[in-house]
């Protein structure tokens, strides 16, 4: 089975671990528990009738306490930029991490998701900003790890982009 | 589990194992071709929890976690580098077999030619660090929530403030548009707001009044301040007002109205009404209603006031003509007071009933010994009035000889005392008065024509009271006030019926008679208002004269009857008889002679 490394990137407390846990185990906790280092999870998805094993590297959130190590990003086939719609500052963290990822792994597929769609009325990221992100070529999805909205779509869409971007290995044909 | 000693195994195996146990780490030595990682020494307990209980001395890469697999791939760089070089994997979390997790970190290093892999479990120090980071981030999130709540509140308040400001602007615009002059005072009496119109009326700038205590900011006289303070201290319904003067180069008269602020009982709203124009008009009206000691606002009197002002501007001799009691001396005094001679003497002399020698002596003075009884040098009235005005009342009654001497004085501006030969220069303005028709006297030969022309350069003719009845209420009220003040009685007004009687009376004695009647009434009055019964009997019993009728002087025979009747009523008391007729004693005596009445 094809295996693809996917890194979860974003500022702290944006919901990276929650998205992974909702996707892998279909569970959610309101309690915030910061990630230290990396936790690796796996889950397979089907793309074009082929199973693809996503190896999800849930990295710690970047802030003034922890900088993401380049070594964690190496070998990634794609990455997910997670933002918290209720905190505009997480958009800046996403911009910085996207640049780091670009320098480390090059132009691999990535998808951005604005999490916490369940409290849309409290969002600080407005439509105009979202439009500007899309104008930059970003794929922007909305989701809620709490409600499970947009989670499956997020990983399947990225897996599809990765599969379509990469040449099909001989042993997978 | 017993490990197989490898190439790294020291000579003292127990010491090596003790070190590994203390450091809580697993040590592997890599084959030259990187095909195998062999365990060195005894592994700690957690290693078994992770990889399982099997007696494994070789690291099975196929069963390793994806993280470690990828790390070992990249660790070649460290092993290929200089001896002593190390490369850390960074921490990662692995599930253990008990359903928990552990955080590990791998280190690749070269020792001499050997490739070594260390895997350590990050223990309490790492957990402590994790707890610190967790707390710091929770605090940051809480702070962000607080800031966000503050911002939300701030936005809400700004929006409310904007609405409030807009409302305030609208109200202010309305206030300014309406031209309402208003001040707002806080609980300390400081002015917190002043409308544009208010500032305009006060003649002040906002900087000069805002945040200032009203008592200091407003230039007020002490008693006006007291009045306003009383209004503020006793705000009541119906509201009271007071009129005060804002002092300054251009004094403003304003009516102050104080309201309690409905929102704050200790604050006040002061409404200011400009009453300057009203005050000015009232003053002008009052000035018109009286002139010096003259009272009256009838067209005839207003013309007289203006004539007096005009006459006062020149130094000519003036002749005042009018019936007895019309106030000829008051007119003379007014001319003097309005003229440039006002600070010099005003001397009044009644020329009636005096012999020519006495009158000459009085007017021009005499030298000691000039006649019997002239024991000292005596200056005359002309000299006494030097620089001022000499009022010669009843000039029509002066003897021919005195007329000649007077003519000389008026022509030469010099007098000669009786008994002296040398004339003295005098600077006196002569104002003469008469109730005679001097032109007729000239025709009859009793008055010198040249003297008439000399004294009649300027003329003031006074109307009798019956021709200006509209002045009667004003005069009566004025006399009532004067007499009450003098007598200490408190009589507030004239009863309408009393006023009706006064208005219908003929007043042959003119204003003097009216004054006597009011004086009589005040003495008789027992109430707060003068009743008809209080008036003299001749006024009560007199037939009503229609207001439009013109009073015609009685022929001499009828006048003689009146004088005789008055003397009879007064039981021969000539002063009382004169009072009853409303004429002066001098006039009374003169008329007795003219009417050939023997007072006895």
Question: What can you tell me about this protein's structure?
Answer:
The complex is a heterodimer of chains A (173) and B (600). Chain A has 173 residues and is α/β, with parallel strands linked by helices. Chain A has one domain (2-172): Rossmann fold. Chain A contains 5 helices and 6 strands, in the order E-H-E-E-H-E-H-E-H-E-H. Chain A has a 6-stranded mixed sheet, with helices on both faces. Chain A is globular. In chain B, 45% of the residues lie in helices and 18% in strands. In chain B, the strands form 7 sheets. In chain B, strands 1, 2, 3, 4, 5 and 6 form a 6-stranded antiparallel sheet that branches. Chain B has a 5-stranded antiparallel sheet with strand order 8-7-11-10-9, with helices on both faces. Chain B has a 5-stranded parallel sheet with strand order 15-18-21-14-22. The longest helix of chain B has 55 residues, at 124-178. Chain B folds into 4 domains: 13-122, PAS domain (Beta-Lactamase), CATH 3.30.450; 179-274, Beta-Lactamase (2-Layer Sandwich), CATH 3.30.450.20; 288-463, Rossmann fold; 467-594, Helicase, Ruva Protein, domain 3 (Orthogonal Bundle), CATH 1.10.8. In chain B, strand 10 (252-260) and strand 11 (268-274) form a beta hairpin. In chain B, helix 15 (400-412) packs across helix 17 and helix 18 crosses helix 20 (510-524). The model of chain B is unreliable at 1-5 and 545-557 (pLDDT under 50). Chain B has 600 residues and is α+β, with helices and mostly antiparallel strands. The chains are: A alpha/beta (173), B alpha+beta (600). The A-B interface holds A 5, 12-13, 32-34, 36-40, 42, 55, 57, 61, 63, 65-66, 69, 71-72, 74-75, 86-87, 89, 124 and B 65-67, 70-71, 74, 89-93, 101, 103, 105, 126, 129-130, 133-134, 136-138, 140-141, 144, 148. Strand 2 (38-47) of chain A pairs parallel with strand 4 (92-95) of chain B, so a sheet runs across the interface.
């Amino acid at each position: 089975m094809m295996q693809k490394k996917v890194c979860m990137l974003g500022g702290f407390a944006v919901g990276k671990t929650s998205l992974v846990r909702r996707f892998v185990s279909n569970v959610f906790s309101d309690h915030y528990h910061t990630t230290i280092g990396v936790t690796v999870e796996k889950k397979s998805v089907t793309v074009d009738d082929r199973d693809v094993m996503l190896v999800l590297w849930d990295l710690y959130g970047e802030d003034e306490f922890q900088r993401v190590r380049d070594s964690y990003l190496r070998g990634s086939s794609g990455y997910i930029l997670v933002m918290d719609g209720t905190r505009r500052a997480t958009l800046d963290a996403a911009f910085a991490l996207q640049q780091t990822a670009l320098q480390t792994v090059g132009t691999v597929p990535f998808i951005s998701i604005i999490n916490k769609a369940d409290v849309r009325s409290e969002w600080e990221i407005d439509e105009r900003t979202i439009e500007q992100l899309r104008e930059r070529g970003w794929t922007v999805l909305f989701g809620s790890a709490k409600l499970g909205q947009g989670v499956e779509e997020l990983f399947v869409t990225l897996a599809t982009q990765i599969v379509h971007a990469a040449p099909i290995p001989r042993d997978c044909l | 589990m017993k490990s197989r000693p490898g190439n790294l195994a020291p000579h003292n195996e127990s010491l090596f194992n003790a070190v590994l146990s203390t450091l809580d780490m697993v040590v592997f030595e890599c084959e030259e071709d990187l095909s195998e990682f062999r365990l060195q020494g005894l592994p700690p307990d957690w290693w078994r929890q992770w990889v399982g209980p099997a007696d494994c001395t070789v690291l099975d890469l196929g069963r390793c976690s994806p993280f470690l697999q990828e790390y070992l791939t990249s660790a070649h760089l460290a092993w290929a580098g200089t001896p002593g070089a190390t490369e850390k994997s960074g921490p990662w979390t692995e599930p253990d077999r008990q359903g928990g997790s552990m955080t590990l970190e791998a280190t690749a290093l070269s020792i001499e030619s050997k490739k070594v892999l260390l895997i350590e479990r990050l223990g309490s120090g790492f957990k402590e660090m994790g707890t610190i980071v967790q707390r710091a981030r929770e605090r940051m999130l809480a702070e962000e929530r607080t800031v966000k709540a503050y911002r939300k509140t701030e936005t809400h308040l700004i929006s409310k403030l904007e609405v409030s400001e807009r409302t305030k602007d609208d109200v202010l615009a309305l206030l300014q548009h309406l031209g309402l002059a208003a001040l707002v005072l806080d609980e300390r009496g400081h002015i917190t707001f002043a409308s544009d119109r208010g500032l305009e009326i006060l003649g002040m700038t906002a900087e000069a009044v805002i945040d200032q205590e009203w008592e200091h900011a407003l230039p007020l006289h002490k008693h006006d301040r007291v009045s306003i303070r009383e209004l503020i201290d006793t705000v009541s319904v119906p509201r009271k007002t007071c009129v005060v003067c804002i002092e300054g180069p251009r004094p403003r008269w304003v009516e102050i109205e104080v309201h309690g602020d409905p929102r704050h009982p200790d604050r006040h709203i002061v409404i200011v009404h400009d009453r300057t124009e009203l005050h000015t008009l009232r003053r002008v009206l009052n000035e018109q209603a009286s002139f010096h000691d003259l009272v009256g606002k009838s067209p005839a009197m207003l013309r007289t006031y203006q004539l007096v002002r005009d006459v006062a501007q020149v130094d000519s001799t003036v002749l005042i003509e009018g019936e007895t009691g019309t106030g000829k001396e008051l007119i003379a005094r007014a001319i003097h007071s309005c003229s440039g001679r006002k600070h010099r003497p005003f001397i009044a002399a009644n020329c009636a009933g005096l012999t020519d020698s006495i009158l000459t002596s009085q007017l021009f003075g005499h030298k000691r010994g000039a006649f019997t009884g002239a024991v000292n040098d005596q200056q005359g009235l002309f000299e006494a009035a030097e620089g001022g005005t000499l009022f010669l009342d009843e000039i029509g009654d002066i003897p021919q000889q005195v007329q000649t001497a007077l003519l000389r004085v008026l022509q030469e501006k010099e007098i000669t005392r009786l008994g002296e030969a040398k004339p003295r220069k005098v600077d006196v303005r002569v104002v003469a008065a008469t109730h005679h028709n001097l032109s007729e006297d000239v025709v009859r030969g009793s008055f010198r024509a040249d003297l008439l022309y000399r004294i009649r350069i300027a003329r003031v003719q006074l109307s009798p009271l019956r021709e200006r009845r509209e002045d009667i209420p004003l005069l009566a009220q004025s006399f009532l006030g004067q007499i009450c003040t003098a007598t200490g009685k408190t009589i507030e007004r004239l009863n309408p019926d009393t006023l009706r009687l006064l208005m219908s009376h003929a007043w042959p004695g003119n204003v003097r008679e009216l004054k006597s009647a009011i004086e009589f009434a005040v003495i008789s009055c027992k109430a707060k208002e003068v009743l008809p019964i209080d008036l003299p009997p001749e006024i009560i019993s007199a037939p009503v004269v229609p207001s439009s009728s013109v009073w015609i002087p009685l022929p001499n025979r009828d006048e003689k009857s009146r004088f005789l009747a008055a003397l009879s009523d007064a039981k021969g008391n000539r002063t009382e008889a004169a009072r009853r007729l409303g004429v002066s004693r001098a006039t009374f005596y003169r008329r007795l002679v003219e009417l050939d009445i023997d007072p006895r």
